[in-house]
Amino acid sequence: MDRVGTMTSIGSLFTGYGGLDMAVRMALDPDARIAWTSDVEPGPCKLAQVRWPGVPNLGDITQVDWETVEPVDIICGGSPCQDLSLAGKRAGMASGTRSGLWESMFEAIKTLRPRLVVWENVKGALTSGAFSLVESEKGQLGNRAAGPLLRAAGRVVGDLASIGYDSQWCVVRASDVGAPHQRERLFIVGHPAGEPWQLRELAAAGEATLGRALGESSRSDRAPGALIPTPQATNATASSAGYGANLHEVARGMETGVFGAYGQAIARWERVLGRPAPAPTVPSTREGGRSRLSTRFVEWVMGLPEGHVTGEDLGLTREQQLRLLGNGVVPQQGAAAIYQLTTFALKEAA
Questions:
Q1: Is residue 214 within 8 Å of residue 208, measured between CB atoms?
Q2: SS3 of residue 13 by DSSP
Q3: Where do the H-state alpha helices sit in the chain?
Q4: Model's pTM, two decimal places?
Q5: Is the separation of the CB atoms in 76 and 20 below 8 Å?
Q6: Residue 79: exposure state from Cβ atoms within 10 A (0-12, 13-18, ≥19)
Q7: What's the pLDDT at 109?
Q8: 253 φ, ψ to 5°?
Q9: Angle, nearest 10°, between helix axes 200-214 and 19-27?
Q10: Mean pLDDT lowest for which of 90-99, 210-219, 275-284, 306-315?
Q11: Residue 33 is inside which H or E element, if any?
Q12: What is the share, in percent, of the chain residues with pLDDT greater than 70?
């Protein structure tokens, strides 16, 4: 499947609002085509119908017959992170957990054999445990009872290696590319061993696209000041148990538009995105009620095009918008990681 010189195709799993798909195009090929998506939640499904009309949504990833699915150049996805997050229950990557859906993504990779795999998840994947058929019980491998156990990130890399894929990985924060919040994430890319995806013709274009997307300000301004809390899906219910500061409360403290201690970080992201920050709050829908977090502000914080999630054409509820935004990846953050890792893979193979 040599796609050099033809339109690159992307298969999107756990699609959400498509942030990882945007990252791939931003880093490698702005003209890449979304061949299919996969999500089951009502919010993402509504968004997919409008943002990618005519593109099939494969639905429940555990029920897909991959032999019948169009092969693609790139498969990307961030399998659910609840069981890997430091703020979650830390159940790990095992069958029966949400994070265990990596197994279904792996089935897609084994069958379709893409040129490039991109997996994104919380940093907790580096420390959270995992299940593998190679080690069906803890401690079976190794010669020391107190030795390290299999971790989620190791499971992903090991599974890819078992079908002949090399991998590279790194951790990138959203603030590394200029965003006003941390959102630290792990990125793993994989490609057939000894055959890194043919990026040589696309690398220069990718670098130019990435440069335009990030802007020089994100690289030169290394003192962003105080960072706002990272958006989380829990913002949909105004709860932040286990996740630190509540973005709702912080937003109410920025209502004047001056942004206080967060002013420098907000200004830097304004320069990177090329548009001003929306007001952080909107009036309450209840008479006499307190103002509430603006979904347009969260969308801006996540580096998305205006209206991509909050547009009236989608018909999403406020809760659906906030859940989508809280579960997504900052495209510029993902692009920086993908470009860095695929470029490194090419250098290794040179």
A1: no
A2: strand
A3: 19-27, 42-51, 102-112, 152-162, 200-214, 217-220, 247-252, 263-273, 295-301, 318-327, 331-349
A4: 0.86
A5: yes
A6: buried
A7: 97
A8: -75, -10
A9: 120
A10: 90-99
A11: strand 33-36
A12: 72
